[in-house]
Write a structure and sequence with these properties.
Helix content is about 30%, strand content about 30%. The protein has 11 helices and 25 strands.
Length: about 475
């Protein structure tokens, strides 16, 4: 057991246990069944639905039997990202944990602390016999990372609680009291293929070494997007050379900033030196542009061979889509320093036989920001001949300035952490907005332990922060 000697053991033992169970979005049945069986062993009432959501009820402890119930909420799934040279099957392989100083990390993959840590804390509460608390309604949802389908299809009539603690925040310095609305964009550019003649050469161009990150929490850091960079490289080539695009692919998840992307292009053999010169210029320019945020950026190329490529007009439309799709920060708040009001992440591109598929995710502090970006994307689709569908819309969670739950949390935060807590809104998506839509008058706060570089293989969880966060959970529940 990698975490056997670390405290709080009552939390880490469960985190390590669920790390052995593959639980990418859409693949939560095994972990859901495991936790349902675990809760039932302690005599708790468990409701499990067809999407593998869990609602688990634990009575209040002595002296709290008549207290109003508290909802504790986390999500079961994790983002499955890995380094290109890492051999890992997220459908069957466990996460390989290791310790690096104060951090828990995974070897070459995402760690799954988002939101496995919240799940582990809920399991520790279900198991506890000596922690005072009001009646608990523990809600563990599925498919949060791919559109929050679990929460959207939850039977809210099961819940009577009007106070909710969401455990899906990644900074122990702040309570989150609002989040952005999100939309998943699926953009299909129809493919038309032509033969590549023998007088053409071909190169495979790779962009990698980028930092990546969470498309909500990290978007304001201006990190490079491999697909956007690749689009500009293809555009630079197209301006001077008659290129044909045989393939573009990159990104793994729509809500993760792409770290790697590849394109294969064909061009007249006589233009080989010109192509290499353009690529060398791109290397210098992008190294300069991203020298602070992505110092390990690499642009490389190698000889390849292709038999067919996209027709010229389709290739031009693809380049236009990669370079003109909204990407990165679109609007900053003029009221809250550092808060992003609107952004979009160009997340995934895949070249298929019938079409090139592009996935993107707009986020907005209010629904109208998403509507504006949808108008932009629809206009781009009309110009390029693409078919666009807007899926997985999730609501914003509006800030409640009169939160009684926040007042209690702030009162008990400083004695544990030795500092005052910040109160902020998140540009990431949280399921809190769905709960707020479905439970009238609910009072919600979100917090959690410090987790860095979410949605990337560099994800890491602070051991010391987990200890303080667990102490805070115990203290807060006792105060409620």
């Amino acid at each position: 057991m990698t975490l056997a000697n670390y405290k709080p053991q009552e939390v880490f033992k469960h985190f390590e246990a669920i790390s052995q169970i593959p639980r990418g979005s859409g693949n939560e049945k095994a972990v859901s069944d495991y936790i349902a069986d675990f809760a039932a062993e302690f005599g708790h009432e468990v409701v499990q639905d067809k999407l593998h959501n869990l609602v688990i009820f634990k009575p209040g402890t002595a002296g709290y039997e008549g207290s109003a119930p508290v909802i504790l909420q986390a999500h079961l799934d994790m983002v499955c990202e890995k380094n290109a040279d890492t051999v890992h099957d997220f459908l069957k392989d466990p996460i390989n944990l290791y310790i690096d100083g104060d951090f828990i990390k995974a070897k070459g993959t995402t760690l799954g602390a988002d939101n496995g840590l919240g799940v582990a804390m809920c399991m520790a509460l279900l198991e506890s016999t000596d922690l005072p608390h009001p009646p608990l309604e523990i809600v563990l949802t599925s498919e949060e990372e791919t559109g929050m389908d679990g929460a959207k299809n939850l039977d809210f009539s099961l819940l009577s609680g009007k106070r909710m603690v969401n455990l899906d925040n990644s900074e122990d310095t702040a309570f989150v009291m609002g989040c952005a609305a999100g939309t998943t964009v699926e953009y299909h550019l129809p493919a038309e293929w032509v033969a590549v003649t023998a007088d053409k050469s071909a190169l495979s161009i790779t962009v990698n070494g980028l930092t990546g990150g969470h498309s909500g929490g990290d978007i304001k850091k201006e990190r490079g997007n491999a697909l956007r960079i690749l689009g500009h490289i293809l555009s630079a080539l197209q301006l001077q050379v008659d290129i044909s695009i045989a393939n573009v692919s990159g990104g793994m998840k729509v809500n993760a900033i792409p770290r790697e992307a590849v394109a294969t292009v064909a061009f007249p053999k006589s233009d080989s030196d010109k192509v290499v010169g353009i690529l060398e210029t791109c290397c210098k320019d992008f190294a300069q542009q991203y020298r602070v945020t992505d110092s390990n950026l690499q642009i490389s190329w190698e000889a390849d061979s292709v038999g067919k490529a996209l027709a010229t007009d389709v290739g031009r439309s693809l380049i236009a889509s990669l370079t003109l799709m909204p990407n990165g920060v679109q609007h900053l708040s003029m009221e809250i320093e550092g808060l992003v009001n609107a952004s979009c992440n160009l997340g995934v591109v895949e070249t298929l036989h019938e079409y090139v598929k592009i996935l993107a995710m707009p986020r907005g502090a209010a629904g109208f920001y998403n509507q504006q970006m949808e108008v932009q994307i629809s206009g781009l689709a009309k110009l390029t001949g693409a078919q666009v569908t807007f899926l997985q819309r999730s609501p914003a969670w509006p800030y409640n300035p009169n939160s009684e739950l926040l007042k209690v949390a702030l009162e008990h935060y400083t004695p544990i952490y030795g500092r005052k807590a910040k109160v902020e809104a998140s540009h990431g998506g949280l399921e809190c907005g769905i709960f707020a839509e479905n439970i009238d008058g609910i009072d919600i706060i979100a917090f959690g332990a410090t987790t860095l570089d979410l949605h990337t293989p560099d994800e890491r969880l602070s051991i010391s922060s987990v200890g303080k966060t667990w102490d805070f959970v115990e203290t807060l529940l006792k105060a409620l």
